[in-house]
Design brief:
With about 850 residues, the chain is α/β, with parallel strands linked by helices. Helices cover about 35% and strands about 25% of the residues. The strands form eight sheets. A seven-stranded parallel beta sheet has the order 15-16-14-17-18-13-19, sandwiched between helices. Helix 10 (about 280-295) runs parallel beside helix 11, helix 20 (about 655-665) packs parallel to helix 21 (about 690-695) and helix 21 (about 690-695) runs antiparallel to helix 22 (about 700-715). The longest helix has 18 residues, at about 730-750. The chain is globular and about 95 Å long. The two termini are about 55 Å apart.
Length: about 850
Amino acid sequence: MGTDAGLIAEVIVDVPAKATDRPYDYRIPTELFTEVQIGSRVKVPFGPQKRIGYVVNIKERPAAGRLKSIQEVMDFAPPLTPELVQLGFFMANEYLCRTITALQSMIPAVLKGTYQKVVRLHPEAGRKEETLLSLSAKSLLVHLREQGECAWEDALRFAGVDASLLRQLSEEKWVVLEERVGDRVTKQKVIFVRPKKPEELANAAASLSARAVRQKEVLRFFEKRPQEIALPDLLSELGVARSTVKTLVEAGFLEWEERELYRDPFAHRQFERTAPLPLTPEQYQAFASIVAPIRERCFRSILLHGVTGSGKTEIYLQAIAEVMQQGREAIVLVPEISLTPQMVDRFKSRFGDLVAVLHSGLSGGERYDEWRKIRLGKVKVAIGARSAIFAPFQNVGLIIIDEEHESSYKQEENPKYHARDVALWRAQHHGAALVLGSATPAVETVVSAQQGWHEWVQLKERVKGRPFPQMEIVDMREELRKGNRTMFSERLKEELLSCVNRGEQAVLFLNRRGFSTFVMCRECGEALVCPHCDISLTYHQTNRTVRCHYCGFAQRMPGACPHCQSKHIRHFGTGTQRVEEELARRFPGLRVIRMDVDTTSRKGAHERLLNAFGSGKADVLLGTQMIAKGLDFPQVTLVGVIAADSMLHLPDFRAAERTFQLLTQVSGRAGRHEKPGRVIIQTYSADHYSIERAVEHDSDGFYRQESIIRKQHGYPPFYGLFTLLLSHPDRVSLMRQGQEMARFLGKNLPKRTRLLGPVPAPIPRLKDRYRLQMLIKYPPLDEVTAEKCKICLRELEMRIDDGDLRFSIDRDGIVWERSFHENGHS
């Protein structure tokens, strides 16, 4: 066997097998030298098939043995930057996932669909001289004139036509190269028409025959307004055919040019430009802490711990302006789609078209265009939810994670990353400032700030010295003793009526969607349970159905109990639909807007509902978690929390923390402007420390108490955690394999770890699969132990030989201090 010298690409190939999770060497053909780059998506032969892969390195040294060649470069610009390729390896190691899974997670979903490259005739090709073209190029152009377009693969079948010739023809405006996903064009193109010589239009019209009425009409149109116009607009305005305009172009009277237009999801919106607001002394101190590392171009992590209404967003905006002055870029993460309408307003009004927005509410095409604006350097700020942390910027100066405590920053599918960890890695890579902003930071973030791993900046005052809302606990056990069996306490009813009578607005918060929590027979006590998941079904009043919110199973509400046939079957608990119905019954004429997953699933629904509430079309905004934070309405003076303890008793070590955070955040919606606010918290656990500390605005007391409890029970941030989830359609097989895995781990895990389980998962059966869970706890300061755990878990995964067994690993509590030590922090 001979050897192949020259350029060699290391490629991670998209093969769903543990054994192939490594780079493979491929020769780069001479004609692809200029196209193959680190981060390129390529097609390569792998076994008997062609597979997609990502180029992760390019080597110049010769390799032993005969190598297969890269067959095709799939994109005109690599979808991943070299930095994101490095990040993919970091994520694969930290989160114990395949490298290909990590790389795929960083590119827009629209690029993962059925992918096609198309070659079509350029609009200017008809009036260009072909004499200098090769025979191969001429034969292709003849075919395109007849057919209009052809697939990239078909174009390459013409004798003498290769990728480099096609790119040359594209640069010389003979052909257009277009990327399509499925049957949709992923780039939007528009032809613009203009007069070639405006001063000669009158003579041109006179030279046409009397029968060329429509052609003369087009020329007279351009005589009156010689500016360019989009071809579709011209055709609709004059009612002429495309062929009429084409004839005038070929005659040399007009010229046209095809340009790419970006789909703008905010094209229908007008944003008034805003100027920076004056900062309070406290705000200025926070701003100075953030811009210091930006000006020094060095990495620093800052916890911006600011009470609700303290003006964190204005500090963000002014820090971003500083970054942009340096010619660098900023990434801003917001926790979920509900925050984007008001947040986008603030950013677009300040920075205009230099802002790209990435979130799931956009169409695939819109998301693709926003992502490409970033990739091509046409914008300087990316704002979006969790995945926006992968924005392919190349010179990042600032990363902001707003509401950094939010659980939505944790990805639940592979790779199970936390955006906070990825942001830390990217900020260090770029020498950028990382800002973690929250009124209620995660316990992990507070503890790491106490230990000096973040600079801790606090904003303790609301803007303009506005007072905090008065918070009041109503013990629903007392209400029950007094005979009040409704979901509204007398105190909340009284305050709600008073608020509406004053012409003000209220926000009612409930952490559940649907009409009620569960349906139960009062005769035999059996609840309706999903036949595919061990979870109770939720009743929905609008269509009288019961649904599983995990697998989507739905059926009509039965008239009798399926177990004992009793007619005494009723829905219990409280959901948003049920509260809405109760409000209509008890407060006739009250105008209510309900916001939950059911009412906001359609595109633009969030924005429409919030705009309606903001313009005074409703007295009450009723909703789930999506209304708890980020909203700012001047007329809201009352916040009512219907069931403050609905999250408190979940089997989750963060339940108390999430309750405290939610109550603090939702209370921050009241009294943000001139009028004072009031918060009524209804609960059956009035003496729980998370509720008491939230009412007292005592965050220090809460973090102190929660840290003690976490340390006692061995949870993050005082211990690292690997959660292993096993699932199988057969319960016996699952139990047997779970025990075998536990035995293997017991023998091979390092000494300083603790193995708990296997035990049934919190939801023991989901989508007809039984589930077991194991926990591995390890000391987080001991990175050697963590690495040994990862080696052990990878070996465990390699031992699985049952195709029906699914095995996932979720890592919680990746430590910050290792990264800080690596970057010279004390």
